[in-house]
What we know:
This protein has helices at residues 10-23, 35-43, 94-108, 123-131, and strands spanning 2-4, 51-56, 59-68, 78-85, 113-119, 135-146, 149-159. It has 167 residues and is of the alpha+beta class. Strand 6 and strand 7 (149-159) form a beta hairpin.
Amino acid sequence: MIREATLQDCPRISEIYNEAVRTSTASFALVEESLADREAWFAQHGPQHPVFVAEVDGEVAGWASLSRYQVRGGYRFTVESSIYIASTYHRRGIGLALMQRVQETARGLGYHSIIAGITAEQTASVGLHERLGFTKVAHFREVGYKFDRWLDVVQYQLMLEDAIDKA
C-alpha cells in the first residue's frame, strides 16, 4: 500500500535512510541523522512537495518524496525525487510502485520536470529510473567520497508532459 506519509512515519523513514547512510553509497551522508533532523525535513514538505511511504504487512518498507529542486522562483516547475527502500524489501517492486505514485502526483501538481541524482554504481536505482522513462542528462565524475573511494553521480530527468509510462 502506498500512502502519504505522516509525522508519525518519521522514525521509520529516518531508520531506512540511516541504514543507507551506514551501509551504502545511495546517500553521501557520512553521519546518521537524528529524528529531529528528519522531522525538520518533513516539515519542509507538504501538499506541493509530498512524501509517500510503502507499507508491507503494516510496516513501512520504503519511502519517496518530491522536494524543491532549487530555491529560485524560475525553478518552480521542476522537482527532485528521492527514494529509499529498506534492504529487507529490495527487489519486490516497492520502488516501482513508489516512483509511479511520485510521477502521478508530480503530473497532477503541474510540475514540468523531475530530476533524480543517483550514485552511478547504484545500478538498481538507475535501472528503475530508466524503466520509468527518465533520461540520463549528466554524469559527474568523482564528486563524492565515501567508504575510502571516489564516486560518480548521474542525474536523470523526466519531462512530465512527454512522459510515457514504460513500466
